[in-house]
Amino acid sequence: MWLVKKFFIRSLSKFIGFMFARVDLPEPKLLSGPGSLKKLPALIQSKGVRRVLLVSDKGISSLGLIDPLVEALSKAGIGCTIYDDVRPNPTIANIDSGVEIYRANKCDGIIAFGGGSPMDCAKVINARISNPNKTVIQMQGGMKVSGPLSPMFAVPTTAGTGSECSLGAMVSDPESHAKFGVASPYLVPPCAVLDAELMVGLPPHITSSTGMDALTHAVESYIGNWASDYTNSHAEQAVKIILRDLEATYHDGSDMDRRQNLAMASHHAGLAFTRAMVGYVHAISHNLGGLYGVPHGLANAVILPLILDFCRQDCEVQLSKLAIVGGLGRNDESAKTLSVRFIDKIREMNRNMGIPTGIAQLQASDIPRLARQALAEAHPQYPVPRLMKQAECEDILQKLLIIGP
Q1: Helix, strand, or coil here: 199?
Q2: Would the pLDDT of 178 be above 90?
Q3: pLDDT value at residue 3
Q4: pTM of the shown model
């Protein structure tokens, strides 16, 4: 029975990959470098936008990060309505509220300002505005969003999600405790700002979890069956930077050059996984986020080494190449040695940055359900190097349990 199911999953995944490779995915116009946010009002003006909805969250707005931009927009004659009620895992209600505020204030453009949650929320708000007859639930999955959409400008304040260049957004449904994706080329923001000045004050734990999120994007895109020369090139650049600069930035967040490097690493990883997709790390992480609200980057960091252990022999060559790219070994060493060393490096980075080895919220009774949901998400749309059975997924989740006082 498993052989039949495996054949079906692989065949369908290959077909999806074949079709997806023929989709023309845009890349955002970049304003990059410390202080580049100051150039955004002029760019918005050039697009003919007169009033924007600025989508963020309370954490960002309470720090005053959006204040200089709001002032600069006002000086440029651009109206700005702030919507900062986005939750850590944006909900359908979050999105619908944003749509109402956009319409009530007669906005004609959107700024997504923050981490992955404001980015995802803003993308789906934009999709709903241009597709008023579709609910968020009806947009679930791929290619159900019609365009063109309103002009959108992405301003990430963390170096991790790569959402400023991805075609997808994740939405939480509080009623079902599920998390689902909306994907379309129209969701790729046309313009993005990568400004290290917005990231220099990030707390160490946010720096580490978002950086490991970007690393997960790069690694899963690299070892998957949809990888290409284009995606591999971007993934390698991301891995090289993250292995070199993330721990140092965790310990000293004031280094502007390293902050800018990590912002670019996140962008490279975003370009890679948007085209080559992700894998079981994300499938499990999304469902932990949907059920317990576990931060996405943290979950990815914890799960990544376990998934690489599971599939190492099936992607040994790719992992050995990443080890060399990351400065962990030489070409004359065996693929097995290098692949194991790469996984060991990830565990070492997690340990050095205070990332736990398990998920505190995870309950043993939820494991069968979480495994089913994760595999349903992954099969067949994630081109993983090794297919996982229900029992194997449950075993990995068991390893994430934290037992003790």
Answers
A1: coil
A2: no
A3: 87
A4: 0.94
In tens, the pLDDT along 266-320 reads: 999 999 999 999 999 999 999 999 899 899 999 999 999 999 999 999 999 999 9
- Phi and psi angles of residue 381, each rounded to the nearest 5 degrees, phi first: -80, -10
Average pLDDT value for the chain: 94
Write down the pLDDT at residue 325: 97
Q: What is the DSSP string of 241-294?
A: HHHHHHHHHHH-TT-HHHHHHHHHHHHHHHHHHHHH---HHHHHHHHHHHHH--
pLDDT for the residue numbered 143: 83
Select 29-198's CATH number: 3.20.20.10, 3.40.50.1970, 3.40.50.12780, 3.60.15.10. Answer: 3.40.50.1970
- DSSP string covering 49-71, please? --EEEEE--HHHHHTTTTHHHHH
CB burial of residue 338 (10 Å; 0-12, 13-18, 19+): buried
CA-to-CA distance for 382 and 221, rounded, in angstroms?
10
> Taking CA 241 as the corner, what is the angle to CA 235 and CA 242, rounded to the nearest 5 degrees?
85
Residue 184, pLDDT score: 92
| Separation of alpha carbons 239 and 232, rounded Å | 10
The letter for the amino acid at 41 is P
Backbone angles phi and psi of 216, in degrees to 5: -60, -45
CATH 1.20.1090.10 applies to domain 202-399: yes
